[in-house]
Amino acid sequence: MKRLIPCLEQDKVEIELILLIKTILTACKEISFRVGQGALSNVLGSTLDENIQGETQKKLDVISNQLLKDMLLESGKVRTIASEEEDYVVAATENAPYIVAFDPLDGSSNIDINGQIGTIFTIYRAKNDVAADSELQFAQKGSEQVCAGYVLYGPSTMLALTTGGPSRLYTLDKTQGCYLLTTEKLTIATDTQEFSVNMSNFHQWSAGFSDYINDLLLGESGVRAKKFNMRWNGAMVGDMHRVLSRGGIFCYPNDINKPEQPAKLRLLYEANPMAMLVENANGKAYTEHERILDILPSHIHQRVAVVMGSTNEVNKCLTYLK
Ligand code: P6P
């Protein structure tokens, strides 16, 4: 099986970016080990702190964030860092070529129940017209990403990665400590019978989205005239790995009861990297009204609604949201 670096070289990825990707994945190998040790290494449970999202930080959130930050700061390849666990951007190496944003441990509520969790990351070219400590480094559309990926800490540790070409899957060979290519080109089926949404939020959905879900639930006896199945992982990285692997539609729509902040998922380090992986696997990634990769972020922790996965199913859902 092919190793990651020769794949990136074959994709003509520039060496500086290959070295940066390698740095991120080295940190993820360490996170994978810590996650795998679970209770044996006293990393479960919560801290007494909250992040800017107002979420209680798990010990592993903090450990993973620190691991990634330290290695990126040391790499010399990164000018500015943004993280779900950091209130503000972190200036790294002046004049370095890239900027990196990440959710160090997406789905951390799954940590204490041994559920799927993962690291989501995205890389852009640094901007020379703003300072290294400016949030405006990340004022770039998702279509400007030079790399997007996640590492899923499941029964096996898997990497989904795109550098602009096909989205590919790699599996971490823990005996050799290297990522091996296991799916050369991910292709999301254009149709699906599987949807992913937190049904307990039904009271906060728009009428259009509620109608869409109701028609899925009616199955063969309704206008869709086919049975649908539902999966909800509680971790976007786990749900999106399933969508990338076997098709589906993943939805986190706006909460109509919270007009001041209707969306939950973060644009910079959740929606955008997943949208790049989805589009480069022949899928579609929208909010309720627009292509995610076309959005110019207004701040690093901006939230957006998400409807992404099998193209025909996303298009169908969007007809209910017009
Ligand atoms: P809910 C995890 O906290 C996350 O940001 C996503 O990874 C996940 O899809 C969603 O929130 C889960 O939200 O409504 O199940 O708590």
Detailed description of the structure:
It is a single chain. By secondary structure, the chain is of the alpha+beta class. The chain has two domains: 4-183, Fructose-1,6-Bisphosphatase, Chain A, domain 1, CATH 3.30.540; 194-320, 3-Layer(aba) Sandwich (D-Maltodextrin-Binding Protein, domain 2). The protein is built from seven helices and 17 strands. 45% of the residues are buried. The model has no long low-confidence stretch (mean pLDDT 96). Helix 2 (15-37) runs antiparallel to helix 3 (59-75) and helix 5 runs parallel beside helix 6 (267-279). Strand 7 and strand 8 (157-162) form a beta hairpin. The longest helix has 23 residues, at 15-37. The strands form four sheets. Strands 4-3-5-6-7-8-9-10 form an eight-stranded mixed beta sheet, with helices on both faces. It has a five-stranded mixed beta sheet with strand order 12-11-13-17-15, sandwiched between helices. A two-stranded antiparallel sheet has the order 1-2. The site of 6-O-phosphono-alpha-D-fructofuranose has 9 residues, from loops. 6-O-phosphono-alpha-D-fructofuranose (P6P) binds at residues 106-107, 109, 198, 234-236, 264-265.
